[in-house]
Structures are given as structure tokens and as C-alpha cells.
Amino acid sequence: MSEHSLKNMMEKPERLTPGHRMCAGCGATVAVRAVLRALKEEDHAVIGNATGCLEVSSFMYPYTAWKDSYIHNTFENAGATLSGVETAYRVLKRKGKLGEKDTYKFITFGGDGGTYDIGFQSLSGAMERGHDMVYVCYDNGAYMNTGIQRSSATPMFADTTTTPVGKNSDGKVQCRKDLASILASHNIPYVAQTTFTRDFKDIHRKAERAIYTEGPAFLNVMAPCPRGWRYDMSDLMEICRLAVETCYWPLFEVRNGKWSLSYEPKKKLPIEDFLRLQGRFRHLFKPGNEYLIEQFQKTVDERWENLQFLCSKM
Amino acid sequence: MRTDISNINEQSPYEDLTEGLKLFAGGTAEQFNTGEWRTNTPVFIADQCKQCLLCCPVCPDGAIPVKDGKRLAFDYDHCKGCGICMKVCPFDAIIMKEGIKP
Amino acid sequence: MSAKSIKERMSGNEAVAYAIRQVEPDVIPAFPITPSTEIPQMVSTFIANGQMNTDFIPVESEHSAMSAAIGAEAAGARTMTATSSVGLALMWEELLLAASNRLPIVLTLVNRTLSGPININCAHSDGMGARDTGWIQIYSENNQEAYDNYIQAFPIAEDPSVHLPVMICQDGFITSHAVQNIELLDDASVKEFVGSYDPEEYLLNPGNPVSVGPYSVSNYAMEAKKAQADAMVRAKDAILKTGERFGKLSGRSYGLFEEYRTADADYIMVIMGSAAGTAREAVDELREEGVKAGVLKLRVFRPFPEDEIAKALSACRAVAIMDRCESYNGHGGPLAQEIPAALFRNRVSVETVSYVYGLAGRDFRVEEVRSVFQDLQDLSENGKTIEQFQYIGLRKKQE
User: Fold this and answer.
1) What residue of B is the nearest CA neighbor of C210?
2) What's the pTM value of the predicted model, to 2 decimals?
3) Contacts of C359 (CB under 8 A, 6+ apart)
4) For the domain with range A3-312, which CATH number is right: 3.40.50.2300, 3.30.300.110, 3.40.50.970, 3.40.50.1370?
5) ipTM summary value
């Protein structure tokens, strides 16, 4: 995408207004703005939302930041709720209650708590049933809304309020769950993992494909949380760059079962570069804990090799 | 019946709230000022700006309006002063100033 | 009576499925659970055979069934679902949201006891467990009432002064699976009675966006709950109005409850659901023997017709309150709480005795009804002390 395209992209009317109450520097609304920009201006949308930071901050009565129709139901059912909306659309369209030109798109947002964990079943069901909708996970790797508790998306060794680092603890014991792969195993037409790159080309293209591919689509967007990750909030884009360059957060997509890498770093950076900026990993840099970083690196390498293998098969 | 939120406030009697607290309107949050949250403030140096627009998508608050392919002045009613825009600017056209005022 | 009456023989589930085909809602998300499973099965067959223009969503749980129902109804589609027992329990969180979002969803509940132990037979513990979720609750005695109540559910729920979800209940197996005579209405009359669904505000209204489900600070949340509670109070009128209009259509009118030989009764049994028939049979026998017994069959449990019940019971000597549900509070089920409260607040001083009967489908027989009335007589006429909270039909060690 050229400079010109970035101009085109940014000229579109904002569908998420300012005045929402997300923290300064939050990655989640950067993700929302990017995804919504992929909507054609003439298309309507119904936005779904799992309970979480985004929901409590973007629709605080009587202030809604959503210019499109929006529904928040509860925490664990954003998938099922939007599947009901999408079904209603098909029926009303069939019964002539909506004009032929009234096109609606269905996009739901959930944090990793509402997506990887409590809302996992509802998401899986909605995807398996083939609803024409996009589920976007803004993955900030912990339950941030309730005060930074571990989730199954939390990376290993992260210091969270339920995996606190202490005399007998190095933080979270387990590795992240690989949700994008699990969604790919639903054999849905489109799954992608992305985050914010300098020109926002990757997320824009993937959101466009997700929205305009018929059938269910899933986007996993890494959306850093300055509070939970404990980095200087102005460093959002540097954190994202390092996540990609270290292959901690590879950019890839799975279209109709075909895996492909969207970006391959010329020189994969060591994982320390990503970890160092974040307070939640500070303990890994204490003398004597080098083996923990080695372990982290090993996991990243294994996953990256596995992903390269999946992508090379095609 | 469309909602006019100027008729709704925290002292409204219960009969005046919308049914099920649904809001029959879009984008009303724009009327809420989050600029007051700032402890640091970005300042736009228009002369330095090459209109690359890299600062626009990174704003969590959409507080950098774009018109005719060009970014305009900061929307200080909403900018929370996170400084992400300042870090991505390749031309030093954004500087951070301490305090709420530009 | 203006509709064509069609005489048939059907089970309660068949009757409700027949009514669903006639009403033809837009969206039905459902997950199977005994004994309501037949309803989504039959509906799926109607759809498969092109007999109704409805989308069925085969969701992966009851929680998702109600979640999808909320989405579909908010989107502007007439929506219903069916469930039983723990299925309703799993929906519980979403029942609250359906009501607080003021969505006129209809749920047909085939009452089954809640676990544990797991058991598939009738009790009212599922419906009673959801009694404070903000749903209108209407209980049916037989297949005919299940059918009639289902058709009335939509005009009640969608009444602009109400906008609340409605639960239509029938007793699992006893009603849902037993084949009885029934009088059905013709399709066109049902469609006309229910009318088309054209909400004023909904998600899929181009150019008129709606936001549903806010975070609310304390200054709004309490007010929202009061507004919702007011709608439940107003529902009473809508129920009566609809019951009367249904009477004109079918010849069968409905009120908040049905009184049987209560006008001059000394002793009244208050009961809900299928067991009312057994109670009436016992009352007929007792009347033959000179005992002035009567039955008050409660139809509408939410909104609770407190004043009307108190008035109906004000002239008798003693009341037996029958709960097909245990509350684990040591002194009775839900009716045993609400009816004495209604009497007290209306300054009606009548003796009451609370009974739990029929849990997990336990038989409830004419002899047992008679023994309950004997208790009331002993208490009132013979000066005996009667245990204030008793189980009917329970095996226990002889003292």
C-alpha cells in the first residue's frame, strides 16, 4: 500500500468516535479504528463486543463511541450474540424487511479473556456454524479490565496479579495458547494474525479480507496494554515492531486452509529485545535467570519453525 | 424515538431514561471530553510536517483529524497525551510538552 | 368466537410446535434438552419441509441459545427458544439481559427438575429458579393451555407498554408428552392475532444506529431497574387484555388465575400446572361429601398477582399452598413465601399450610389432595396442630 493509500485510508470518516474512556496509549482502540477503516463507507455494520475494557469504556451510558449499531451482551457470548444478529439480517433480508442495497457487515471485538477463555465455546460455535461475521480478538495477553490477571493468552513468565513473581515463582508457568491455529482448525475461510505495523498495511488488508470474505473470519490482533505490560505508553509502535521482528508475534494468514506468512524478518531479533522494554518481564533479566530467557527463546523458535513449516507446505 | 443525550444526565428521573438504557443514536461519546486527562500534551509543528500521516492511525483516540489528505491540528478535547504519535513521527513535527496545555 | 376450531389429539410439545409453525417467528436458536427437545426437532422438520419461513440456529449450548436470541431480537427479528431444567439454569445470566435490554423474546419452558441428582421428570424448580430474572412467567395446566398461552405470549411481550420477555411453561412429560384432545386455531387467525413484528428501534435499521448493553454508572443503574420493574407491573394489563382478546377469537378466555368452586369455599388449594386437574377431581369428591373445597390455579406467576390472590382467598378459612419446588429455606417453596406475604400485606388473616409435592415427577394423587384438605379441616375445625411445612408422597421412617 502506497502513501497515497494511507491517505485514502485516513480520510475515511471515523466509525469509532473519540471521547471513549480507554486509557491513554491503549492498543485496543488502535486496533478497532484500523479494522473499521476496512469497511466500505457505504456499508452498514453491527458491532458486537464482549465485556471488557473496550466495552465498559466505549459505551458508558449515555455516551456511545460507536457510530454503527452496537451490541454488548455479556462476557462469554460475543460470538453467539452476533451470530443471532447475523441470522436476523439474513431473515429480514429474505422477508423484504431490509432494502436490497442495505448491506450490513458483522464485526465483534473481544479481549483475550472474552475470546481465548470464557468466550471460547461461544466463538467456536459461531465460527463452526458458518455465520458471515468477523470475530476480532484484541489480544493484550491478560485480563486487563479486572486488573491484569493471567489468561491463556498470557506469555510464559509474565508477571501478572494471579501469576505474581515471588520467591517461589517466575511468573506464569504455561505457554500461550495458539488461538489462531485453533481457529484455523475450524476450517473457516479466513484466519489471520496481525498487529500494528508502521504503515498499517498488514492489519488493513487482513481486516478487509476478513470482512469481505463470505463466511466466518477470525482476526487475532496483538494490542499492547501499557498498564499491564508496564512499558512507557508512547512506545506502542516499538513494542509491536519488536514483537514482529523477534517472531514472538508472527504475521500470517490462513485462507481457505492455506497458510502463508505475511512477513519474514530479514534477521530475526533475539527475544530479549521484546522482553526488555516490559516491566512484566523485568525478573527475567536478573543475574541467574538467563535460563528463563533461553527457555522463552526456545518456545518462540519452535513455534516460528512450526509456522514456517505450515506456510512452506503450500 | 431518537435519543438526544442533552436531555439525559445523572440527575434525570428514571422515567426519562431510555428503555433498557439502549441508546437510539450513534457516536455520542464525542461530546465527552477526555482531553482533561492529559498530563503531557503533543504540540504539532506544522512547518516540519511532511503529511506522511503515520501519526494518524496510531492514535488510540482518533484525535488527529484528517481532511483532504492532510492532518489537521490536534483535537485537544479528546487527546489523552500518550505520545505515541510523537514517537512515530519521522520528521520531529510533534513534540511533547509537560502539562495539559499545548 | 371468530376462528375456525380444529379438533386434534396432540402432546404438549406437539401443540407448542404447531403454534410455533403458525406464529412463524423469524429466528429460533435452540439447544436440545429433555423433555423440550421435541420442540426444536419438530420446528426443524417444519423448516426442512418448507412449512415455515424461519431460521433455526443450532447453537452449541443454552447459554448461546439465549445469547443468540438476544442478538436476533435486538436486531429486529421476532425470536423464540425452548428449553428445560439445567438448560434454563445455564441461560440464567442471559435471561437477566433479555429482560434488562427490554427484548420481547418468547421462551417455551418444559418444566423439569433441576439437578442434582440429575433427573428428567417434572418439577417447577427450573422456572422458579428464574423467577427474579425479570421474565413474565405463565404456567399451563395442559396441552390446550400450552398452545393458547404460547400464542398470547407475543402480543403480551411486544406490547409497547411492556417490552419484556415471556416464559410459557408446561409440565415436563406430564403435559409435554401426554397426548390429549386439543382445539387448534386456523393458521390465518393465529397470524392475525399475533400480528407482524415491527419494532420502532432495532440494530438493523439503516441510518438509525442503536447501541445496546451499556456500562452504567450507579446513577443510572438503579433507575433502569425501577423502569424495568414498572414494565412488569404494566404487564398485568397486557396479559388481561390479551387473554380477553384471545377469548373472543377462540372461546377460551384467560385471566391471571383460574378459580374452581372457590366462591363459597372454606378451604382452597393454590396450585400451578398439571396437578390442578387432580386437585379439581378431589374437590368434586369433597363437595359431594359436603366439604366446601376449592382450587385456585395460578396461571401468571410473574407479574405476581398479589392483590387479586389475596382477594380471592379472603373469605376462606384455610389455604393449602402447593409448591412443586423446594427453596431450601426450611419453610416452603416460592409460592409459600409469596402468597402469605400477599395475604399479610392485604390484611387478610387466613391460615396457610405449605406443601412440597411432585418433585422429579413424583405422583400426586387424588387421595393426597384429599389428605391436604383434611389437614386444613383438622387445623380449622378440629383444633389440631398441623405441621406448617410438609412433603407429600415422601417415604420416611415411621415414628
Assistant:
1) B24
2) 0.98
3) C113, C123, C125, C324, C325, C326
4) 3.40.50.970
5) 0.97
